[in-house]
Amino acid sequence: MEAAQRAPAASAVVHHERYYFPAGTVVIKVGHVLYRPHRDILDSEVFHHMFSMPPGDSGAEGLDDVRPITLAFVTTRQFEDFLDFVYRPWSPPPYSVDSLINLYELGKMWLMDDAMAFARSQLDSMTLHPARRLQVARLLRVEAWLAPAFRQLVTMPLRDLTLEHGRQIGLETYQILTKAKDGIERERRLAAAKPPMLDVQDVECEDHRRCQSNWNVLWKRKVGAALLHPDTPLAFAQVLDHVQSVEWVDVFTGCRDGAIEKLEANGFVRDNEIIQQAVSLLSPYYQSDDSGFRGPRI
Ligand SMILES: [Zn+2]
After folding, report:
1. Confidence band of 135 (pLDDT split at 50, 70, 90)
2. pLDDT grade, residue 3 (50/70/90)?
3. What is the count of structural domains for the chain?
């Protein structure tokens, strides 16, 4: 056995370099690696159940290297990340995103709320690219991360999204993202080309047709051009402020104020509506499994 540890053949069983404690109290095998942690530290009902299984024909499992408790459906990388958590005084931050995802998934499988909560709060406090954030949100089913990350992505030019970002967000999200961006661009062109009606004539306005014609020309020149600016287009949320800062030459003050009041009342929110619609289409893919819906987990 000693010799096998030093120069393991491909299929030989080896002791994990950090988590095979000589004084450990249970031997666990994952793949071809043996771990010997302390039973007490694996504080989960699932483990308690595993440890209290009646011995099979070949004797009790987990007492030695010959008959370890074998964990299926777990990789050595995942189990190591999990042990890093349970023995965490020895593995201080920073943690990698992948390790925290592994921890969350094993915590979920073994009903360890503290592992899940720890992974989630660590991931929550990290600054991630919105594409990566969406990927993590979908893997962990944290719906609360969806809308802010989607909103960030919508404002990014598509040329800044790499193939890797595309893989991270997945095909459904990418499809809905590009449609939302397309819809917002259409609204932008519409808003630029179609000045709002200057239909409230002030009682003191003597030539309202001239008023309207100047308003239309100035809208396209000052507001429309800003909305369509190739490098720094005016955001929808800034349109009202911009309208108020424009000098509306030869538009009667009372008529202009009436039109701006109407704009304020209606709001410039078409982009928000499009984003909210997109987010509600995506929600099912990000909701927790408890909702009963199981979207794809690519
Ligand atoms: Zn007028």
Report:
1. very high
2. very low
3. 2
CA distance 224 to 239: 10
Kindly give the distance from the C-alpha atom of residue 222 to the centroid of ligand 1, in angstroms, as a whole number.
19
pLDDT in tens, 91-112: 667 889 999 999 999 999 888 8
* Secondary structure class of 12 (helix, strand, coil): coil
How many residues comprise the chain? 298
261 C-alpha to center of ligand 1: Å?
14
- Specify the pLDDT at position 243: 94
Do 90 and 15 share a domain, yes or no?
yes
Residue 148 lies in a domain: no
Helix (H, G, I), strand (E, B) or coil at 197: coil
| For ion ligand 1, residues whose CB falls within 5 Å | 205, 208, 211, 252, 255
**How remote is the CA of residue 186 from the centroid of ligand 1, in Å?**
30
Q: Is the same domain home to 95 and 209?
A: no
Confidence at residue 60, expressed as pLDDT on a 0 to 100 scale: 78
The whole model's pTM is what?
A: 0.78
pLDDT mean across residues, the chain: 88
User: Residue 217 has what pLDDT?
Assistant: 96
167 and 297 within one domain: yes
In a domain, 147, yes or no: no
Nearest-5° Cα angle at 156, 160 to 120: 95
Residue spans of beta strands (DSSP E) within the chain: 14-20, 28-30, 33-36, 69-70
The residue range of the domain holding 122 is 2-126
Same domain, 183 and 281: yes
Q: Which of 126, 147, 175 is the last residue of a domain?
A: 126
- What's the gap in Å between 233 CA and the centre of ligand 1? 29
User: Which of 128, 72, 70, 64 minimizes the C-alpha distance to 101?
Assistant: 128
Within-domain flag for 131 = no
Measure 219 CA to ligand 1 centroid, in angstroms.
15
**Assigned domain for 238 exists:** yes
